[in-house]
Amino acid sequence: MPYPLPRRGLYAIADAVCDERAVSEAIAGGAVVVQHRAKSIPSDERRRQALALGRVCHRLAVPFIVNDDPELARTVGADGVHLGRSDAAYAFAREVLGPTAIIGVSCYDDLDRALEAAAAGADYVAFGSFYPSISKPDAVRAEPALLGRARRRLSIPLVAIGGITPENGGQLIGAGADLLAAIRGVFGSCDHREADPRAAARRYAGLFEANHPEKLTALGALHVAL
Fold it and tell me: What is the CATH number of the domain that holds 189?
């Protein structure tokens, strides 16, 4: 049975240079879901990495997602897969992974695509890039207001991605994001000994405490009273 997708929190994306230590540190700092995204390495190395990172996530009771490859996700025992526009179709991924797998869909700046994905059964949709991104410098840009429009029409979790930092992430949570996805913001350059994924993850996790729905409601009531 796959680990369920948390409703709120940091969605850490580990690239090809991230190892088990980096991922375990990110989880210790507050990451609630981890995705393995390593498109540029050979398939056998990608499989080896996915197996290793998946073991770390499951030992720490955190869902593990594989980027773009439903069959690899099944092979390594991942909890689900994330699909982009050029990846496998949702229906194929669901057939390969079964009814309980987590399947997320990239929707860029396209609310209609998100509505279609949700209607098909997607477990979450991702929007962005909201800010300039080193990982995807040519990515489609989305405006924070899109999250509010999506929140009014969708009940599944909304993931925000693209150039998100602890400094700008709070705006996106306030706009309607349930999860913030980050690669370099969490892991930096994982092959550098000074990288500190635990501390970085804590900074993102703190945004969700500061933007907790009950706290926002209380602040709103206080503002009205004043």
Answer: 3.20.20.70
